[in-house]
């Protein structure tokens, strides 16, 4: 059974979760002004968070929402989106949900490529909310396994490499096999990397979108930390955690007080740490009186 089929079956049996292609995966019948938003990486789907959402304790204290970034959805075939378009559409989805459910406090979690875009999404939410006179606070953010250089961007780098080498080859299946073979060579990360390919094949995400986002992520990876630091210095009431794949980045001397570099976690669930999702959800559980 493909992961997609398993998750569809799981959702049908779980009355507290609902999936909508336009909005994403969310909890139902919640009375709260707090929203926790989870955004996955390249080729991954909102439904990836179905079982982690079910595992989070007391999940009726706040709304949970998981997004599939545009281009990776089941109905997005033949349409390719760049980072700016993905950011704008993510903000639109989040604010639509917030308005419908009278949410005023938003915290954000991003994994890999989702973490890469998290600051941009937060800033887009702030600007969009201001333009429509919505009172919204971005309380806390967790950037998990953000791509900060060529050594951490191993997935995006390999996808970008294959696309460059085989740019004139239209055989997506061949490229899928190549990416699986290239990624599997890193034995210490085999389980995570194989899960990425499994997710991609399960949801049949288009290779052109995978390649477009991967090349963009790889190109911009060295700017990510600076963007996070700049955001923290501007929005000092927003607390931010960063989890990195490798312990190679030291910000202790220069980082803002509201930014924390967390130790790396080894235990993963479909490429995303279930332990981290539980810890991040606890960290994000906060109301604010400071609206952006």
Please describe the structure with a list of short key phrases separated by commas or semicolons.
single chain, 292 residues, alpha/beta, Rossmann fold, eight-stranded mixed beta sheet, 11 helices, 15% strand
Please give a structural write-up:
The protein has 292 residues and is α/β, with parallel strands linked by helices. It is built from eleven helices and eight strands. It has an eight-stranded mixed sheet, sandwiched between helices. Strand 3 (34-39), helix 2 and strand 4 form a beta-alpha-beta unit. Helix 6 crosses helix 9 (207-220). The longest helix has 18 residues, at 83-100. The radius of gyration is 18 Å and the shape is globular. The model has no long low-confidence stretch (mean pLDDT 78).
Q: Helices and strands in order, then pairings?
A:
Layout: H1 3-12, E1 17-20, E2 24-27, E3 34-39, H2 50-55, E4 63-67, H3 83-100, E5 105-111, H4 113-116, H5 118-131, E6 137-144, H6 154-165, H7 172-184, H8 190-203, H9 207-220, H10 224-234, E7 239-243, E8 259-262, H11 274-284
Parallel strand pairs: 3-4, 3-5, 5-6, 6-7, 7-8
Antiparallel strand pairs: 1-2, 2-4
């Amino acid at each position: 059974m493909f992961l997609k089929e398993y998750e569809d079956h799981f959702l049908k049996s779980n009355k507290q979760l609902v999936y909508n292609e336009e909005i994403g995966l969310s909890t139902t019948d919640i009375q709260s002004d707090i929203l926790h938003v989870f955004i996955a990486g390249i080729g991954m789907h909102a439904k990836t968070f179905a079982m982690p959402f079910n595992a989070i304790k007391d999940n009726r204290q706040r709304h949970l929402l998981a997004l599939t970034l545009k281009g990776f959805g089941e109905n997005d075939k033949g349409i390719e989106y760049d980072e700016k378009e993905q950011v704008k559409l993510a903000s639109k989805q989040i604010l639509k949900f917030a308005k419908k459910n009278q949410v005023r406090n938003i915290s954000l979690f991003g994994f890999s490529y989702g973490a890469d875009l998290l600051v941009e999404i937060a800033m887009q939410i702030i600007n969009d909310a201001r333009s429509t006179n919505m009172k919204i606070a971005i309380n806390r953010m967790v950037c998990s396994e953000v791509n900060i250089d060529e050594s951490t961007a191993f997935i995006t780098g390999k996808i970008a490499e294959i696309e460059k080498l085989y740019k004139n080859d239209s055989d997506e299946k061949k490229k899928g096999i190549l990416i699986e073979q290239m990624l599997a060579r890193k034995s210490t990360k085999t389980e995570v990397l194989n899960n990425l390919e499994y997710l991609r094949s399960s949801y049949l995400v288009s290779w052109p979108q995978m390649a477009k986002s991967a090349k963009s992520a790889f190109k911009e990876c060295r700017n990510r930390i600076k963007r996070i630091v700049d955001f923290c210095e501007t929005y000092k009431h927003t607390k931010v955690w960063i989890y990195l794949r490798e312990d190679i980045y030291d910000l202790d001397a220069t980082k803002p007080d509201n930014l924390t570099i967390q130790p790396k976690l080894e235990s993963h669930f479909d490429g995303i740490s279930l332990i981290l999702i539980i810890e991040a959800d606890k960290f994000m559980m906060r109301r604010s009186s400071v609206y952006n």
